[in-house]
Amino acid sequence: MTRFITVISGKGGAAKTTTAINLGVALNQFGKDVTVVDANLTTPNLGLYLGAPVVPINLHHVLQGKYPVTDAIYMLPCGIKMVPASIALQDLNGVKPEHLPKVLKGLDKSSDVVIIDAAAGLGREALAAINSSDELLIVTNAELPAITDALKTIKLAEELGKPVTGVVLTKSRADELDVSIRNIEIILEKPVISVIPFDESVREALQLKDAVVLTHSRSRAAVGYKKLAAALLGREYNEKAAREFKFLGSLFSRLGFGRRP
Fold first, then answer.
1. CB-hemisphere CA count at 13 Å for 211?
2. Which of 68, 143, 173, 213 has the most Cβ atoms closer than 10 angstroms to its Cβ?
3. What predicted TM-score, i.e. pTM, was given to this entire model?
4. What is the crossing angle of helices 200-207 and 220-232, to 10°?
């Protein structure tokens, strides 16, 4: 059974897409087959982040009824699969976000984990992404406006009966200007399950159009995302063991083991 996880923030600029990508790559390093879906239909960024802004078939074409979703899956050098959305404004014609849950059912059993990168805000696109998932990860910064929007997102998820697995705190500086983790948990009434430190390596990885987990594997941000992946899998994180597991996974992949049709 495929695990569908929606990564959502409630506001833009919280590092939601960065989290979706790096969580996907980190889960892949733990041996999981992962697909990341760009459910931000109005302002998609996933393909831009990963160096594939334009593809022959994208999620907009699928939502227009032209192709099955399996035709919009692309294998990336970083080890994950991607279902990108279109950056062309005209491709919004005929697209209804509320059809997304039905469309994404076509990805069931195609991967171990499907990560849905939701649109910012709480509009129709974000609502569709929530309804497409089994669980939610709330991405926020340690700033009151971001936390307030995260709280609204949590309340909406609860109204829709979607469980919130936890909160991912990104761009953390851990200084006196940050809202403390304890206070964030009190406000949101959800556990902070991962803290991703502010790290210039994330910007460098974006310039390289790759995941920081790969480009700067020992950076503080990369380790934070790997710890998040381990937590979601119910495992203890150990950097040495993770490197060994990554090597074995790469070896098995080259030998053809564990590949899905």
1. 27
2. 213
3. 0.91
4. 90
